[in-house]
């Protein structure tokens, strides 16, 4: 009896720890919105109730020693002529439903680079004053205060994105938290975001497991993907990691390149990732393909 009393708290602890390790966690879905005029409105995306994060994409030009930043929202509206300021109402509606709205920098196209620490400082000032804080006479998305900045840098030039992350994170210390997120490709380390991610300043990292045959899912085989996931989650310090996925077979450069059918995601892939203490959920490219394929709706209960 004495021995039992002595050891039962320990046994209870072991049981709790064991349950924690074996239990899947509730994750979030993050989605890119902005690059297809036929994907529905930002408000529709948020009203779907499917997403915790929407990344407004993309700021396709910036930096390069002070070139004028260009926001491109494809067929949605024309930021250059002030045609997107009405999105403020939608952004605020998203936020009132607990959906974080971020501005995404870069993308696969576009023309961007950071020439120096000073250039990074100028870009950071521009971003701060036009999106997550500050003030400016020409805010492309109007007065709404965005929740953060997403780094989708894909051009292989990593210079000074670590500076940009540090400068943006310093704005957070002024009272308004600026969420920082990043979308590296799955081969580790990432050619464009490697040094930036080494700062350890990112809240969420959504790793792109598509358009990357060396580390993506392929016809029932999740081994390369799970091995890359394990490398990422053990090598980079970040708030949480998301599995970045194409929302349909049409969402990738080569059709199907990394697509994980919903049933395979829930039965094969998620059990291999959602035990990680820093697992955050899945990221989808993009809202357009998610609407076409009804992907989120089919997997949300398991993410
Ligand atoms: C989308 O998936 C959900 C969950 O499986 C299902 O209930 C719904 O009917 C689907 N919608 C369409 C349009 O296929």
TrEMBL record:
EC number, as in UniProt: 3.2.1.14
Compartments, record wording: Secreted
Segment forming the signal sequence: 1-26
GO biological process: chitin catabolic process; polysaccharide catabolic process
Domain of life of the organism encoding this protein: Eukaryota
Boundaries of every GH18 domain copy: 27-303
Main location: secreted
Similarity comment: family membership: Belongs to the glycosyl hydrolase 18 family. Chitinase class II subfamily.
UniProt-recorded name of the protein: chitinase
Natural source organism: Zizania palustris
């Amino acid at each position: 009896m004495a021995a039992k009393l002595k050891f039962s708290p320990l046994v209870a602890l072991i049981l709790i720890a064991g349950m924690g390790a074996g239990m899947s966690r509730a994750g979030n879905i993050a989605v890119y919105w902005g690059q297809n005029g036929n994907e529905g409105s930002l408000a529709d995306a948020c009203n779907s109730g499917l997403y915790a994060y929407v990344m407004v994409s993309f700021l396709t030009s910036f930096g390069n020693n002070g070139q004028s930043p260009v926001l491109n929202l494809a067929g949605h509206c024309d930021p250059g002529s002030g045609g997107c300021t009405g999105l403020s109402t939608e952004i605020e509606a998203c936020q009132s439903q607990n959906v974080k709205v971020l501005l995404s920098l870069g993308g696969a196209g576009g023309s961007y680079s950071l020439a120096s620490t000073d250039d990074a400082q100028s870009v950071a000032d521009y971003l701060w004053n036009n999106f997550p804080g500050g003030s400016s006479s020409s805010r492309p998305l109007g007065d709404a205060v965005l929740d953060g900045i997403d780094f989708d840098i894909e051009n292989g030039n990593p210079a000074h994105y670590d500076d940009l992350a540090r400068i943006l994170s310093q704005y957070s210390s002024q009272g308004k938290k600026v969420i920082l997120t990043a979308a590296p490709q799955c081969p580790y380390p990432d050619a464009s975001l490697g040094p930036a991610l080494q700062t350890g300043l990112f809240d969420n990292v959504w790793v792109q497991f598509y358009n990357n045959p060396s580390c993506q899912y392929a016809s029932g085989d999740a081994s390369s993907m799970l091995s890359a996931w394990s490398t990422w989650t053990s090598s980079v310090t970040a708030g949480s990691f998301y599995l970045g996925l194409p929302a349909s077979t049409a969402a990738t450069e080569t059709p199907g390149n990394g697509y994980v059918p919903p049933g395979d995601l829930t039965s094969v892939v998620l059990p291999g990732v959602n035990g990680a203490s820093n697992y955050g959920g899945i990221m989808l490219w993009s809202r357009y393909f998610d609407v076409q394929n009804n992907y989120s709706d089919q997997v949300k209960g398991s993410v």
